[in-house]
Amino acid sequence: MEELFSISIGCCQLLEAGHHIRWAPGLKLSWRWLAVAGEVPVLTMIILLCFMPNSPRFLISKGKNDEAVRVLRWLRGQNTDFRREFEQIKESVRQQSRRISCAEIKDPFIYKPILIAVLMRFLQQLSGVTPILVYLQSIFQSTAVILKPEYDAAIVGGVRLASVLIAAVSMDKAGRKILLFVSAGIMFASNLILGLYIHYTSLPSHNSTMAIVNGTLVSPESLTAEPSGYITLIPLVATMLFIMGYAMGWGPITWLLMSEILPLKARGVASGLCVLVSWLTAFALTRFFLLVVVDFGLEVPFLFFAVICAGNLIFTGCCVPETKGRSLEQIESYFRTGRRSFMRNHI
Asked: Please, is 326 exposed, middle or buried when counting C-beta atoms within 10 Å of its C-beta (0-12, 13-18, 19+)?
């Protein structure tokens, strides 16, 4: 979903600027056949969803308690205390069915998890992932990477896929917070390296006039510059590290935590608010990315992203709770009472 939104933003920006868009051929397929190939996982997901049972929470909300118990027993296992969890879910569904009042919003139990979730979505986008993905080939062309931009983009895409798989395997073993720390640290280092590389090389900086040609960032130097050595692999390696760090933590885990920590009775509205803040931030950042590059140089956005990633480390340590192995009811009890004992149960 993030990739599709990134592409949409990029196309809108290019159309608004009045530039001619010329679709580049893929490595193996044209973009049309690539779009057709993208339908395969979607159709596979639709088929697999036919075999997926309804969630116990949904069944309880529809009054199908016996079926909810059977599904919960199948999900958790015969030898677990699924009856107790059934009662907890039943109570939380009862509370969720009540409309939240304006007075309740002032309760820390309500606004604290909402504020954490909104800030996580805001900081995730502010770390620079959307403009980097949108202008990936343009950034590689501007930094004169020794490989062709389309090959660089394919390599970065492969790294992102592998990193998502690593996150999926390790998320419930290592925990959410440790992956967020590692993710933010890698993104900070990669953005800092890329910003300093651009600043201390002969690549476009604030002293050279930059322009946008067919959606590509160029300068008088880069129009005729050719890759001069393996040192030009630094932007590629730094970008690969950034994408790897993002895909391991701040990419998927922010979505997961949003669904885990938001209070049940305000989950619908709060989720919509988080998504709204996320995409508005992504749009604004992509909208001003080219303007900042043209006026101040390509290194400035990456140094700004590095500062944000450093802030993500502090935010993770101070504000984000560890939710590994905790039920939604335990997490809600933690925010309601502030007692960490609720978060230490059933680890």
From this structure: buried
